[in-house]
Specification:
about 350 residues; alpha/beta; 9-stranded mixed beta sheet; two-stranded antiparallel sheet; globular
């Protein structure tokens, strides 16, 4: 009888053990490395691309094709371009959304956008500030100002839907890199929009997969963290072989810019500010203008255009424009020194 009771106890113990294994999903007592990595992603709340895409891309690229006979062949009236330096957030978002609409009407579905942000230090003119080293705080402070603008942009450019469902998913595993994916789900899946807020070189794979599944739907990158200008690491990164790999590993962004170009991204609305000879100078590229326009803000006066050029203006380009216009440096003007003309066009 004692032996029988012992057997029953062992059977119950075995049953409890089997039940525990079933409840835990056959999880071993020591998690495997792959399972540890998956747990970290859950804790950090970084959705992988596999997690993001089913939740945001509601149909395949083929299904997103718009074959509706009711809209075919009916051109939509597009707003005329406004090539100006916006004074505040309202003007900037209006100009940016109009540029996106014009690009969409021309069949451009991959949009690169750079915005100035409200809420930084004292602006040289208006209420918008550059996203350079003059901004107080780090990347998360920039993210806090940029993310609401991306949300506003998606709402403005949504087609045939005044109130799309907007959702933001963080993509930075550490939680301190300030990267997210905004999705606007419209009434029809073919009208959905996607916007990466402050993407970095580490999110290029996610960008590729979203673009591959989005098909003809619009995908935007807003204020990417890589540079538009080249430094020594970028020049090294463009070299073939091991030397190029080392250059990109050390911070070069040549590969990121190349991948973005191959994905079909076009400059749709880019607004940036630099200080040249003591003056705030803003450069603007707004679709469909193929040229960059350079403006100067002298002594807190309204922006005045310096000129246009096909390539992105460098510091040296702007300095030459100032010299050609006969505009002395700010320190010289403060001392009463006047140039040959004194004012831009």
């Amino acid at each position: 009888k004692t032996e029988t009771m012992h057997t029953m106890v062992l059977s119950k113990s075995a049953m409890v053990s089997m039940l525990a294994v079933c409840v835990q999903g056959f999880m071993p007592s020591t998690p495997l490395p792959g399972l540890q990595a998956a747990t970290r992603l859950t804790v950090c709340q970084k959705p992988s691309v596999r997690t993001v895409l089913p939740a945001t891309l509601r149909c395949t690229a083929v299904e997103a094709q718009d074959d509706s006979p009711s809209t075919a062949g009916q051109p939509k009236e597009m707003p005329l371009p406004k090539y100006r330096v916006p004074k505040n957030q309202i003007e900037m978002m209006s100009d940016c959304s109009d540029a996106v609409a014009r690009a969409q009407a021309d069949g451009v579905t991959r949009h690169k956008i750079r915005l100035m942000l409200p809420g930084g230090e004292v602006s040289s003119w208006g209420t918008l500030c550059p996203t350079d080293e003059s901004w107080e705080g780090g990347i998360m402070q920039l993210f806090g100002a940029c993310s609401p603008l991306v949300r506003s942009l998606l709402r403005k450019v949504s087609k045939n839907d005044l109130a799309p469902k907007l959702d933001e998913q963080r993509l930075d595993e550490s939680g301190v890199d300030g990267i997210s994916l905004w999705t606007a789900q419209c009434q029809q899946a073919k009208d959905d929009l996607y916007a990466f807020c402050q993407p970095s070189t580490e999110t290029i794979d996610a960008l590729k997969q979203v673009c591959g599944n989005a098909g003809p739907r619009s995908v935007m990158i807003v204020n990417p963290q890589w540079r538009e200008t080249k430094d020594g690491y970028d020049l090294a990164g463009e070299k073939p072989g091991l030397f190029g790999q080392i250059g990109n590993f050390l911070g070069g962004t040549a590969n990121a810019r190349k991948d973005v170009a191959e994905l079909g991204f076009k400059d749709v609305y880019l607004l940036q500010e630099y200080t040249v000879n003591g003056d705030a100078c803003r450069i603007l590229k707004c679709y469909p203008n193929p040229n960059w326009i350079t403006y100067i803000i002298m002594d807190e006066a309204a922006p005045a255009m310096l000129g246009q050029q096909s390539g992105r203006p460098t510091y040296q380009d702007i300095a030459k424009l100032l010299e050609d216009k006969g505009i002395p440096a700010k320190w010289a003007r403060d001392m009463g020194i006047k140039g040959s003309t004194g004012t831009p066009e």
